[in-house]
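Note to self: user wants both folds in one dump. Writing first protein now.
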Amino acid sequence: MEFADRLVDAQKQKRTLLVLGVDPQLDRPGAPGIPADTTLTRFCCEIIEACAEFVVAIKPQLAFFEARGIAGMAAFVEVVRFARSRGLLTIADGKRGDIGSTSAAYAEAFVGGGDFACDAVTVNPYMGSDALAPFIARVRNGRGVFVLVKTSNPSSGEFQDLTAGGRPVWESVAARVAGWGSDFIGSSGLSSVGAVIGATYPDQAVRARELMPAAIVLAPGFGAQGASAEEAVASARADGLGVIVNASRSLMYASRVEGENFIAAARRAAAAMRDELNLALAARIRH
């Protein structure tokens, strides 16, 4: 079954747009990334368990697992397995992109059949079509790809907004995403080749939908980065489909008070975010 169709089916069944970004921060003075009385794997899995009812997928950020070495990557494998056991889709947030055999190896690692394989992966298009071809080829096997188009960070416009060929570079990338994805449109009317569009740039998200009518937009920036629910759903189609919204730190670290149960805090935050996004989406569809 196409990745896009599996995602849409899960969204409809659970009535949610929300994605849990699994970003276990590194420890630093005064702000430990992992609570003292638990382990990396247990912390991540307990957060997933708490939020599972309210999210359609998890998006583990590979950097936070890779930085912890062999133990970190072993935890990543367990986290992905646990999420799948709870019926959640998995998106490896690795932003990979290279050329030739290197890109093919990345694709095998994260959307192949090995220990690190997920349902989808984020990729960087800066090196061109040949860098993404191995990932897009995996779409035929039911995998998904999310291409960085307009990212949520404040300096994203430094290169993405530069004019080339009469339009911003990010718009040219969006047009290519539409082309790459046109061969992989499922019964849902959406493609398994999607795009990352930051919720912090709602005007660009609206334009991106015009350029990529069949793409699923993965929208980071809701929550800790400051984007509102209304901004997060700006790229939704008229039928309410085509967007999923990531929240990471605002869920994993919802517990801000010393002694507060981090599991209960995450569950409470996920429920509130799910409802807030659904209300914003309903309002957008009405208008």
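First done. Writing the second protein, which came from a different request thread.
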Amino acid sequence: MGGTVTAVSRSSEHHFTKANEDSVRLLAGLGVEGDAHLGVTVQHRSRVAQDPTQPNLRQVHLIHAELFDELRAAGYDVTPGDLGENVTTRDVDLLGLPVGARVRLGAEAVVEITGLRNPCLQIDRFRSGLLKEVVSRDAAGKLIRRAGIMGVVLSEGEVRPGDPIEVELPEGPHRPLERV
């Protein structure tokens, strides 16, 4: 499995959107250098309020560019970084990866996938009605989250648009992604 990094983004403050950059550096065990979510322990504000000692399983947020294509077709102007992701990818089935999959971004950086992003109402504040486009239910009533995946940095390195992506699946049986 392989794909391409199409954009990299970060924000030093807790804003919903993140600015696109020429490159970002992933730091092992911490996340994206200069990003507000950098840290060993959880940095997401609502989770810090619950328990600031939780491990940070959301160091890096990845979204597939194909989602932006679908959203544009549905009438939403959404571009890389708008939904708060750090890495935008193309040609990788991010949502189909199991827990523990390892994603090599560029020559050195490796992110281990921990779970699905749990989209919140901030998405509707960004673009009214957008939440229903990224969260739905299947025929059995199961919640489907499509707003990207989260991971932790195993190996540090620079990541740039145009970098190749390689995926290494864990040994089976595979556990499907759940909300983190």
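Dump finished. Worth passing along: The chain has one domain: 2-168.
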